Amino acid sequence: MESRWTGLWILAFVLAVAAFVAIEEGKPQFPRYYVPPDAFSADRALEHLNVFATAPHPIGSAEHDRVRDYLVAQFTALGLTPEVQKATGVTARYRVAGTVENIVARLKGTSGANDAVALAAHYDSVPAGPGAGDDGSGVATLLETLRALRAGPPLHNDVLFVVTDGEEDGLLGASAFVAENAAAKDIRVLVNFEARGNAGASQMFETSPGNGRLVRLWAQSAPHPNGSSLTYEIYKHMPNDTDMTVFKRAGDAGMNFAFIGHWEAYHTPLDNPQLLNRGSLQHDGENALALARTLGNADLAQLQERDAVYFSLPGNLFARYSTALVWPLAIGCGVLLLATIFFANGAWQASFWRILASVAAHIGILVVLVIVGVAFSFCVRWMHLHVLAEGGLDQNALYVLGLFALLVAILAPIHRFLRRWFAPPVFFLGGALLIFLCVLAASHWVPGASYLFLWPLLAGLFATLLAAFRPTRLSVFGFVVLCVLSLPVLALFVPFIRGLYEAFGFTTLGTPLLSLAFVILFLLLFPSLEPALGAGRNLVPFLALATSVVLCVFAARATHYSPEHPKPSLLAYALDADRGKAVWTSSVARLDPWTAQYLGASPTRGKLPDFYPVWYPIEFFQHEAPVLPLNPPRAELLDKSSDGDSQTLHLRVISPRHARTLHVGVANADVLSAAVNGRDLGKPSEARWNQAGAWSFDYSNPGDGIDLVLRVQGTSPVTLVLVDRSSSLPAIPGKNLPPRPADSMPIHFGDQTMVRRSFVF
């Protein structure tokens, strides 16, 4: 075959397969035919969402109570006797507490024992959105799963349906359930459902230690298993938590599922039933029903087994093997690499020292192109902040593709330049040695991630040995082998890159990760792409650069806020009742006509330490606001005692405005211990954000007030700082400030009114 055309055909094959995998990988399917009564139906689950996920229902709101009553009625209608557990939940990790109402129902098994499988989701939403995905989809999944189980044969084990409250305010319901509910002691394995967006595959992204048997049971029972041990390895090192965190700390085995596509909708009004992907809901339900039936008939005393390495593949394939094989496979890969190096030394005079020099070249390429990715992201964001229209950049696929094309345009001439110093086998083997170091590092520190480097490296080494780097012409056999051996790389790395995009997007963190992953993909595909790079000369970099420019132009034109893609922001009225001053605050990065009506044309920007913690990562626009006669939070001293070294204060704290949350802080003393409503708040050192001399906690749903006991160091007067936060903005007498326009939306805890007051005791 003519080398030039062969190389271009290989390039076309690689691009076509990569596009197919990126589009189809993990795409959830929605059945459009009759679903029998004992199967899960997203349509039936959606009927529940259309009732209870129509408006925001955060803890402490009237809408929350309506949703609670609806869920209790549905569990009752399905033949169970639900319990509403009202308690004070405390999560010391977040320095939060709150009054929660968990819903717990038990489907009895035939065994007569109390050992149970638990299915869990949370029913509260954030104030900014109706929570159809997060986590209405999980709650609807539980209801429809229960209905399908009732339509089938009875199970051996009990199944607990645990619908927690207050997850959005700090895992409060799960904390209260584990601490106080007797049913928590019956759980042997728990399956939790979450969401961060409104689309995408339902991925198993977290498990408990010793997960080998759980993974095997899930892979054998679920119609479309999707997830990877790599995702779990990444998640373990992230600051994110779900209710599963609480259950795992209580010693429960478990699996955690979520879909994370289109997280533009996360914690916003876009998280509604109309925009929720039906296939994602169906995928959640298939996992829930399959695991409920499998675990419901399993021996719950035999769930521990050595951790598994597992990953899903295009075509609904799923691979898994024990971590006991990680090191034998790594050693085998090293032996093959060494053999390839010896073969290359004889076939292409590739000395080991030149291969080592190639390793240094690859490291330099990785560093340079990651810097290019960061610079590209910075330039795009600067342009949309100062020159171009504002728009959503975090989930902007066109800019990401433009970045990838730019990286190719830079990689291709670098490759041509390096060919003067390194023969193609030397260049690839230097990269292979670098990847092998990644295999060794992953095998030691994150064994669940080792597969991502191991199998593509093996494919690249076979490509080198069997078909790559022929001097002039490539045989038909060589062409086929190169195409086939590119498949393992594409099947593993393209979903990985897509997963990085879904999880992190085109952000300051996501862009360097995407750049690094893309360059490693190029490195692994080099034996297959080398004929195209060698034959294309200036064609490949020219086409790549032109493609990058075109994609960026289209991205710039398409990036703007609209009713379909509204601008997310926080707007708040903050009143300091001590000083008699108030400000409007907004989280927007760039003023728009609507926020300017509150903030004026030239607001200041900075932190709001009196109202938000110092670690909060936003600097707010601020502008003076009229001082309104809002009733501030109050603290009443019920009792005070001292032992000479410390003093104990017994306080009653209330919000006359019946605000949704209360922030309580001690400004000038070290807090030795604290309890709210009789529940220990934990040691200050347990908190993730521990600030010396600035102890505080938040209480959600305080109702008519909270009972607080503080023991502080010393006997000097103690300054107590209170901030209550209620949803929505206040009315301004004499002014008719307009509501948000269609191209603007609240996010997270939404528009707020905050009132601050301090007391000295």
Give a verbal description of the structure.
α1 packs parallel to α15 and α2 packs across α9. The relative contact order is 0.11. Among the domains are: 256 residues, no CATH class; 272 residues, Aminopeptidase (3-Layer(aba) Sandwich), CATH 3.40.630.10. It is α+β, with helices and mostly antiparallel strands. The termini are far apart. It is globular and about 85 Å long.
Q: Hey, roughly how much beta strand do the residues contain?
A: 15-25%
Q: Report the CATH topology name of the domain at 42-313.
A: Aminopeptidase
The helicity comes to 40-55%
CATH superfamily of the domain at 42-313: Zn peptidases
Strand segment tally: 24
Distance between the termini: 89 Å
What Rg do the Cα atoms give? 29 Å
- Low-confidence region ranges: none
What class would the helix/strand composition place it in?
A: alpha+beta
Q: What is the residue-averaged pLDDT? A: 91
Q: So what's the overall shape? A: globular
Work out the helix count.
18
CATH architecture of the domain at 42-313: 3-Layer(aba) Sandwich
- Quaternary form: single chain
Largest sheet: 15 strands, mixed
CATH class division of the domain at 42-313: Alpha Beta
